């Protein structure tokens, strides 16, 4: 038959992990074209122009491998490494491919370089300098650990699903290779689809280790045909042995063989040493490997065809016949019998069923993520969910907001089948961008093929940088794990401990909570302000919307294109939330209890109009009172007179008047800060102190001008007088009270895009409790009976370096723990009886759950799976080793033992016994907070100041909280029996199955946590062992994973008052000069 030179080959693949990307367009590929007889290079980077296809993963070499389709044999081949092209010609490279197919290894004048981590076809590594055929259904991986070592974490590669040959004359395609033929039409031209026939699959080179879930049916088809081939052979056992013996004679098992669930299929032999064939079931979806274990190999052994392999074929066919269906989208796939053509897509329905079934919301509970390689029916109590299930149906989602530490965007988009037009906003950690002062660094649009995917990099405040200099950076981390899925009729909020990467959703245990909230008939703007949520007799009324909006706004600061998210929250009803949000936002925060009383403000009407407060400052205060401008001191005396006669509020602050300056060219948003004459009701007699900072005025003015809000300022008397008399260079603190404006009810009609941006800034700036003080705000409203406490545990994947006795005491105190001898005291002092450092040293309050290094080393994948996932400083271990605080983290349920945990879960449990009846209550936290001061905050005290007025010292000595990270979690409260609750009736704390065994086993005398030092030592042992086992000097390139760094925070117990920045001084000088010029012009 005449042979035709194929011009182009179309290959359809299913990506595993990081997708294959076109080197020219930068777009992810599931279908790509290649020319026959030309090598194509796959590597990590296309910047040098030498990679035709790119996989952006750290374990991929710059030039990893080459693929070539041979027009003579109509087969696709892969080569580990790159054969360097001689003078731009493909002919010699093609000839070299052909030479290697027949075993010739001499390269002649050509040079090649193998990849570092290898190429694996069906989990068998392609030998260096050898060419391997790749057929339909084959799994190609670009790193898979060493032979015999399971390392499925972060697998990257693809499964070949179709190979289509295109040519001018489709009627004369060579079939000498033995492929089965099938024709289908795409509308414009006919195509031939080739699949391997039975007589091709007995090659020992190919290997028969079907991949997981993806392409299961295609691989099973080949496996069934292979089993039939074995039955027809004269020596079935030899056929089995051939499929598991590599070129070098070493046994090449599936790299996950020893770690997955297995079932035995007996092979009957005539008294020889054949043990069994093991079939590995992967999540109940077929076979992932076939292994034969032999004591004394003998080529004369015969298999009883009535048992063993015959039963295996029947079992496979019966199992998969029950889980296949005909898809509406007809595509030519590999048919079961290898003969029929034009068959529709055949696939397993388990995945579709799980998506179509409605998930039961967790309520006051959480799910665990669905791990691959685990049979879900093997466990009992704990419910599981996958990321695609959480987004299903993705077609109804209008927009998505995500917050994560690390991210693999392309994996997420392809894993969840996200439409390319769908708006997706992803807030992510990037040290360089988050510390940058340039607003342009806040966002990026990284994927041209997904133009509506926007990356946001939330800012880290300069006040927590080393030396308060942003260029020095500091300890800070954007660490939340949040999903917001907006639909027309509802909005879903998901809080998890898993980052947006495949490994943490598929291979590492994480917690997942979500709730759907219905749409309101009309937007409720006031739901954005927590102070409008009055307390009830049942404790703190849920302020879920205000907390969610405040946290989201802090992430979206300086990102005008995403400010609309804040208004979207007002369209949904969050009143029946199952739990309380607990957020951390980096910065130095003032502790601010609720004080919405008449004594808190100068006017009783403010208690009804009050929405919140903002911590700001006064800039340019000393300008008017300098000797050059006030040589006689008249202005200073006048100011002192007004201040002395002005009545303070309950917090020792003076009320000021704010007025807009619209005629100042330097800034049309300028706001003046005035001290009025207390004897003048008209307030036209005043002394000007200065101005609001530019960063505050830019959002105050547009909201004030249109009448949405009103603003009132408060300052401390001594700060004002100190700065005015030039006795202090400190920044003068000004607290803005935000009040309802006359037009607030018409906001939905009047609001413009620039108002939305200003509103986002306002919500982000509102003072709210954060970190441990937010925890105290939620839990401190209940009277927890200390004598009935039965357990207090905290499990985290990172234990901060500043997790000192003081931090432990602060956390326990915030969680409501009291010193038992003071518990029943009726003292009004809120600090009375609080858990202190002394109590914590004498009786540690919390059991810290963290894995021992031996547990990590004995995991399914050893130290590799937990590297860059756990963080525990050696210094903290030395401080804790004799305190009996640490307990081993034993995963729960049992089938998760051996898999690493990335959870952050705390529980305080109480047990009340009345007669023969006992009941449990308490609270449970789940989210992103690790047990560290960086996440929860460290209390610091203000340095002393020269204060002539001693009357307010007690009030003003307010502690502050230094928080380094963005974090988010959810707290479920189960109040004591005597305190009523009106939410989630029927929920019990005992319904929450913790993801670790309780009571957790205490560390033994020889146990040691998986500290950084212990992990490095264990990894060094692993490298040494893997090198000797494999006889090679190279190891896998390190894959970066999450590691929350935290430096020692000792010595940071105090903070120093800030001074005005140079840019603020310049701004104030420009405003003062133009205000004086304007006044002079009016006078003349």
Notes on the protein architecture:
- By secondary structure, the chain is α+β, with helices and mostly antiparallel strands.
- The chain folds into 5 domains: 1-196, Tumour Suppressor Smad4 (Sandwich), CATH 2.60.200; 198-357, no CATH class; 363-584, Endonuclease Chain A (Endonuclease, Chain A, 2-Layer Sandwich), CATH 3.30.870.10; 593-767, Alpha-Beta Plaits; 774-1030, Endonuclease, Chain A.
- 22% of the residues lie in helices and 23% in strands.
- The protein is built from 26 helices and 50 strands.
- Strand 24 (399-403), helix 7 and strand 25 form a beta-alpha-beta unit.
- The chain is globular.
Q: Kindly state the number of beta strands.
A: 50
CATH topology of the largest domain: Endonuclease, Chain A
Total domain count: 5
Strand order of the largest sheet: 23-22-31-30-29-24-25-27-26
Q: Given the helix and strand composition, which structural class is it?
A: alpha+beta
| Helix segment tally | 26
- CATH class of the largest domain equals Alpha Beta
CATH homology superfamily of the largest domain: Endonuclease Chain A
Short description:
This protein is an alpha+beta fold. It has a 9-stranded mixed sheet with strand order 23-22-31-30-29-24-25-27-26. The model is unreliable at 146-152, 168-215, 243-310, 312-354, 595-605, 823-828, 944-955 and 1027-1052 (pLDDT under 50).
């Amino acid at each position: 038959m005449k042979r035709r030179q194929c011009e182009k080959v179309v290959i359809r693949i299913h990506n595993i992990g990081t997708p294959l990307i076109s080197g020219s367009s930068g777009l992810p590929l599931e279908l790509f074209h290649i020319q026959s007889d030309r090598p194509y290079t796959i590597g990590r980077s296309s910047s040098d122009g030498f990679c035709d296809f790119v996989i952006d993963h750290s374990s991929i070499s710059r030039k990893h491998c080459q693929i070539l389709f041979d027009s003579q044999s109509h087969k696709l081949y892969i080569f580990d490494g790159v054969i360097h092209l001689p003078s731009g010609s493909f002919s010699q490279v093609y000839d070299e491919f052909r030479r290697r197919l027949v075993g010739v290894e001499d390269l002649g004048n050509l040079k090649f370089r193998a990849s570092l981590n290898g190429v694996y076809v069906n989990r068998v590594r392609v030998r260096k300098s050898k060419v391997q055929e790749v057929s339909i259904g084959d799994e190609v991986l670009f790193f898979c650990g060493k032979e015999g070592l399971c390392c499925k974490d972060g697998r990257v590669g693809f499964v070949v699903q179709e190979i289509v040959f295109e040519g001018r004359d489709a009627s004369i395609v060579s079939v000498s290779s033995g492929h089965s033929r099938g024709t289908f039409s795409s509308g414009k031209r006919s195509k031939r689809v080739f699949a391997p026939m039975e007589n091709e699959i007995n090659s020992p080179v190919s290997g028969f280790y079907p991949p997981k879930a993806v392409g299961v049916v295609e691989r099973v088809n080949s496996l069934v045909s292979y089993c039939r081939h074995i039955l027809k052979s004269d020596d079935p056992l030899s056929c089995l042995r051939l499929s598991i013996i590599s070129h070098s004679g070493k046994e090449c098992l599936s790299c996950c063989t020893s770690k997955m669930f297995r079932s035995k299929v007996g092979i009957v032999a005539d008294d020889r040493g054949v043990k069994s064939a093991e079939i590995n079931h992967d999540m109940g979806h077929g076979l992932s490997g076939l292994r034969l274990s032999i004591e004394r190999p003998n080529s004369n052994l015969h298999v009883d065809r009535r048992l063993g392999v015959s039963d295996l074929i029947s079992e496979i066919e019966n199992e998969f016949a029950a889980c296949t269906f005909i898809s509406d989208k007809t595509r030519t796939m590999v048919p079961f019998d290898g003969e029929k053509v034009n068959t529709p897509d055949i696939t397993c329905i388990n995945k579709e069923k799980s998506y179509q079934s409605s998930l039961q919301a967790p309520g006051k509970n959480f799910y665990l993520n669905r791990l691959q390689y685990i049979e879900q029916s093997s466990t009992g109590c704990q419910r599981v969910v996958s990321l695609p299930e959480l987004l299903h149906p993705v077609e109804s989602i209008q927009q998505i907001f995500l917050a994560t530490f690390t991210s693999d965007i392309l994996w997420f988009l392809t894993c969840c089948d996200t439409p390319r037009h769908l708006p997706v906003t992803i807030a992510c950690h990037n040290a360089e961008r988050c510390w940058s002062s340039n607003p342009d660094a806040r966002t990026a649009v990284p994927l041209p093929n997904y133009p509506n995917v926007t990356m946001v990099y939330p800012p880290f405040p300069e006040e927590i940088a080393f030396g308060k200099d942003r260029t020095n950076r500091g300890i800070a981390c954007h660490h939340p794990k949040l999903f917001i899925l907006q639909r027309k009729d509802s909005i879903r909020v998901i809080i998890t401990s898993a980052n947006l990467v495949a490994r943490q959703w598929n291979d590492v245990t994480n917690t997942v909570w979500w709730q759907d909230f219905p749409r309101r008939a009309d937007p409720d703007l006031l739901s954005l302000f927590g102070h409008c949520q009055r307390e009830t007799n049942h404790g703190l009324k849920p302020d879920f919307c205000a907390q969610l909006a405040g946290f989201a706004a802090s992430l979206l600061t300086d990102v005008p294109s995403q400010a609309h998210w804040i208004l979207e929250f007002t369209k949904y009803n969050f009143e029946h939330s199952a739990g309380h949000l607990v957020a951390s936002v980096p910065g130095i925060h003032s502790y601010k209890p609720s004080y919405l009383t008449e004594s808190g403000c100068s006017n009783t009407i403010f208690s009804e109009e009050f929405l919140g407060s903002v911590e700001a400052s006064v800039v340019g205060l000393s300008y008017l009172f300098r000797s050059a401008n006030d040589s006689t001191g008249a202005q200073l005396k006048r100011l002192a007179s007004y201040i002395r006669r002005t009545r303070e509020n309950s917090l020792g602050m003076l009320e000021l008047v704010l007025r807009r300056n619209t005629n100042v060219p330097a800034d049309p948003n300028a706001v003046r800060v005035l001290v009025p004459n207390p004897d003048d009701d008209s307030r036209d007699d005043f002394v000007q102190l200065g101005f609001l900072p530019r960063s505050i005025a830019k959002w105050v003015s547009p909201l004030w001008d249109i009448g949405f809000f009103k603003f009132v300022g408060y300052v401390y008397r001594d700060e004002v007088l100190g700065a005015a008399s030039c006795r202090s260079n400190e920044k003068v603190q000004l607290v803005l009270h935000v009040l309802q404006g006359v037009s607030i009810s018409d906001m939905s009609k009047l609001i413009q895009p620039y108002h939305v941006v200003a509103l986002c800034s306002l919500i982000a700036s509102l003072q709210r409790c954060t970190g441990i003080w937010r925890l105290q705000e939620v839990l401190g409203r209940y009277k927890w009976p200390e004598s009935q406490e039965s357990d207090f545990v905290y499990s985290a994947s990172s234990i901060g370096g500043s997790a000192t006795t003081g931090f432990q005491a602060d956390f326990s105190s915030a969680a409501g723990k009291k010193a038992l001898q003071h518990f029943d005291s009726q003292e009004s002092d809120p600090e009375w009886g609080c858990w202190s450092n002394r109590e914590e040293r004498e009786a540690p309050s919390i059991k810290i759950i963290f894995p021992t290094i031996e547990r990590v080393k004995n995991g399914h994948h050893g130290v590799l799976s937990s590297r860059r996932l756990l963080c525990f400083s050696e210094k903290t271990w030395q401080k804790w080793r004799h305190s009996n605080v640490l307990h081993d983290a034993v995963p729960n349920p049992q089938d998760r033992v051996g898999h690493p945990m990335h959870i952050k879960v705390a529980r305080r449990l109480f047990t009340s016994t009345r007669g023969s009846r006992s009941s449990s209550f308490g609270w449970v936290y789940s989210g992103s907070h690790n047990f560290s001061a960086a996440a929860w905050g460290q209390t610091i005290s203000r340095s002393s100041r020269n204060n002539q007025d001693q009357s307010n010292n007690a009030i003003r000595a307010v502690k502050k909280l230094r928080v380094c990270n963005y974090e988010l979690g959810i707290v479920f409260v189960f109040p004591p029996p005597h305190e009523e609750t009106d939410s989630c009736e029927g929920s019990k704390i005992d319904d929450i199955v913790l993801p670790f065994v309780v009571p957790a086993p205490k560390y033994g005398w020889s146990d040691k946590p998986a500290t950084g030092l212990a992990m490095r030592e264990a990894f060094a042992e692993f490298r040494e062992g893997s090198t000797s086992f494999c006889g090679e000097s190279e190891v896998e390139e390190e894959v970066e994973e999450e590691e929350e760094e935290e430096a020692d925070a000792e010595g940071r117990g105090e903070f120093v008052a800030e001074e005005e920045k140079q840019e603020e001084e310049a701004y104030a000088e420009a405003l003062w000069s133009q205000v004086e010029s304007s006044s002079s012009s009016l006078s003349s």
